[in-house]
Design a protein that fits this description.
Blueprint lengths: L1 H19 L3 H6 L1 H13 L2 H8 L4 H27 L8 H12 L3 E5 L8 E5 L7 E6 L16 H22 L4 E6 L10 H7 L8 E5 L11 E3 L4 E10 L14 H15 L8 E8 L10 E10 L2 H22 L2 E10 L2 E3 L1 H13 L27 E4 L11 H6 L3 H23 L1 H28 L10
Parallel strand pairs: 3-4, 3-5, 5-12
Antiparallel strand pairs: 1-2, 2-4, 6-11, 7-9, 7-10, 8-9
Helix pairs in contact: 1-3, 3-14, 4-11, 5-7, 5-13, 6-7, 7-13, 9-10, 11-13
C-alpha cells in the first residue's frame, strides 16, 4: 500500500511539473524552481489545511446563505440587466452607476474616477475595523464586436458576483465583531489597452493595503491553476506603429511617400521572419488607419499590435525584432515611423493555498464541468501588475457551454448554466474571504507561499536569460 501511495504522489508531482510552464525551454529552465514550489506546498500542509477549512462550519455557511439570498433577490437580475446593456471599456457608465449605488446602499463609501480612470472605482466598507483587508475585484466592460458591444466574456456577471461576496462578508465582520474590512475595486476596460486599468490603478496606489484579493471570471469548465507564475493569455507587449509619409496625387505618386505601402511592407517583414521565431510566439496586428481616399497618397497609417510570448525574457527579443521590422519598412519606403509601447501584461502568481481552497469549495457548492488536473500557473488577473504583488485567487466555476469571447457565452449569461456558475463563484469567494478573516493559519500560509514564489520568480528569469541565446552573426569583411 505504501508503494502505491508513493507512486501516486510521484505521478501527481510530474503532472504538476508538466503543467507548470508552457514551452519545453521554460519547463527545463524551471525544473528546479517548480520542484521547490511543489515542496513548498507540501511543507505548508496545503491539503490538510484545505480539508480542515472546508469542513462543516455554521458561521461560514450563514455567510454563504446570505450570498445566495443577495443573488436570488437582486444581484442576478442586475447581472442580466448589464448583459442586455453592454458598454465597452471606459464607457461603462450605466454598469458603474448600478454597482456603486448598490454598494452605497449596503454601507460602502464609494470613490469614482480613481487612478484618473473615469469608470474605475473603489468602495470601502464603512464599518470596517483594523484587521485583514479583504479585497474584491469586479469588472463590467463588454467586448468590442463587429455587431457592436457584447458580453461574450460574461463580465456582466462579475460585478454582481463580487458585490454579493463583499457584502455578505462585510456584514459578517460587523455582526460577529471579527476584525477586518472589505474593499471592492471596480476595474474597467479589462478587454482593452491602453491604458491597462489595473496597472494604472496599481501604479496610483489604489490596491495599497489589500491583504488578499478575490475575483471571478467566466469559463467553460471548473478548474484551478497550479502554483507558480504565469498568465492566462501569454505575456503581452501592446505597441502602436504610426508611419508618416507625404501626400500627393496618385497620378503623380512620385511626388509623395506612401505610408500605406510602408505599413504593408511592415506586415510582410514580420511574415518573412516568423519561421525564425520560436513556435509559441504570437504576433497579432491590425491596420487601424490606412489612408483617406484612393486618389491621394496616404501620408499617415497606423497599425496596432499585441506581441505575445509565454515569458517576458524571449518576448523582449521578439518585440525588438518587430520594432526593427517597422524601421526597415520605413527605411525601404522613404517614410518615418513612430513606435509607441503603450501597454504590457506580465506573469502573475498563483498560490496552492488559495487555488486548492477555491477548487474544493467550488466542488462542494455543486460546480459542473470539473477538470481534476491542474491548469498552468497564472495570476488571478491578466496584467500581472496586481497578482505579482498582492496574493489572491481567481475563482472560475463553469458558467457557459461556449468558449470565451463568443455570442454563445453571452447568451449563457442569461440562463441556468450562467446563473449557476455565477452563484457558485460568489459563494466560493465569500467562503475564501471568511476563512482568510477567521483563520490565522491560512493568512500565514498565503504570506509565506507568496513571498517564496516571488523570490523563485527571480531565479526563473535568470535561468531563462541563459536559455535564449541569440545567434552570433559576424560582421562582413
Amino acid at each position: 500500500m505504501r508503494k502505491i501511495i508513493l507512486s501516486g504522489m510521484v505521478v501527481l508531482l510530474m503532472a504538476t511539473v508538466c503543467a507548470a510552464q508552457e514551452t519545453p525551454t521554460e519547463r527545463e529552465a524551471a525544473r528546479d524552481v517548480v520542484k521547490q514550489i511543489n515542496e513548498l506546498a507540501q511543507t505548508l500542509g496545503v491539503q490538510p489545511m484545505v480539508a480542515k477549512l472546508t469542513a462543516p462550519n455554521k458561521q461560514r455557511d450563514e455567510v454563504v446563505a446570505r450570498v445566495k439570498q443577495l443573488m436570488d433577490t437582486e444581484l442576478m437580475a442586475m447581472s442580466d440587466w448589464i448583459t442586455r446593456h453592454p458598454e465597452i471599456g471606459f464607457e461603462e457608465k450605466q454598469a458603474v452607476e448600478k454597482l456603486t449605488a448598490y454598494l452605497k446602499a449596503h454601507d460602502f463609501d464609494v470613490s469614482i474616477g480613481v487612478g484618473e480612470l473615469k469608470t474605475a472605482f473603489v468602495a470601502k466598507y464603512k464599518k470596517g475595523t483594523p484587521g485583514p483587508n479583504l479585497g474584491v475585484i469586479v469588472e463590467y466592460d463588454a467586448l468590442r464586436g463587429t455587431k457592436g458591444a457584447f458580453h461574450g466574456d460574461q463580465h456582466s456577471g462579475q460585478g454582481p458576483v463580487g458585490l454579493a461576496a463583499a457584502i455578505a462578508i462585510a456584514e459578517f465582520l460587523t455582526r460577529t465583531n471579527t476584525p477586518g474590512t472589505v474593499t471592492v475595486y471596480g476595474c474597467p476596460a479589462e478587454e482593452m489597452m491602453p491604458p491597462e486599468s489595473k496597472t494604472v490603478m496599481m501604479d496610483a496606489g489604489v490596491f495599497k493595503g489589500a491583504d488578499v484579493i478575490v475575483r471571478s471570471h467566466a469559463t467553460m469548465n471548473t478548474s484551478r491553476s497550479a502554483a507558480g507564475f504565469g498568465t492566462c493569455c501569454l505575456n503581452i507587449d501592446g505597441i502602436k506603429y504610426t508611419f508618416y509619409g507625404a501626400p500627393a496625387h496618385q497620378m503623380t505618386a512620385w511626388n509623395g511617400r506612401n505610408a500605406l505601402t510602408a505599413v504593408i511592407k511592415f506586415f510582410n517583414n514580420i511574415d518573412a521572419v516568423r519561421s525564425n521565431m520560436r513556435p509559441e510566439t504570437r504576433i497579432q496586428g491590425v491596420i487601424t488607419e490606412g489612408g483617406a481616399a484612393p486618389n491621394v497618397v496616404p501620408d499617415k497609417t497606423v497599425a496596432d499590435f499585441y506581441i505575445r510570448y509565454p515569458d517576458a525574457v524571449y518576448l523582449a527579443q521578439v518585440t525588438a525584432w518587430v520594432n526593427d521590422a517597422a524601421r526597415a519598412a520605413a527605411l525601404a519606403t522613404g517614410t518615418k515611423v513612430k513606435i509607441d509601447h503603450y501597454g504590457r501584461d506580465r506573469d502573475g502568481i498563483s498560490l496552492a493555498s488559495l487555488e486548492e481552497l477555491s477548487f474544493a469549495y467550488m466542488k462542494i457548492f455543486g460546480a459542473t464541468g470539473v477538470v481534476p488536473e491542474h491548469a498552468k500557473p497564472k495570476g488571478f488577473e491578466e496584467t500581472g501588475s496586481v497578482s505579482s504583488q498582492i496574493p489572491g485567487v481567481g475563482v472560475a466555476a463553469k458558467s457557459s457551454n461556449f468558449s470565451n469571447h463568443t455570442y454563445g457565452m453571452e447568451a449563457d449569461a442569461l440562463i441556468e448554466v450562467g446563473h449557476q456558475g455565477f452563484l457558485i463563484d460568489a459563494q466560493t469567494m465569500a467562503a475564501i474571504l471568511y476563512d482568510f478573516a477567521t483563520h490565522a493559519e491560512l493568512r500565514d500560509a498565503v504570506k509565506k507561499e507568496f513571498s517564496r514564489i516571488q523570490a523563485l520568480f527571480g531565479e526563473y528569469q535568470k535561468a531563462l536569460e541563459k536559455a535564449y541565446p541569440k545567434p552570433e552573426i559576424a560582421e562582413p569583411k
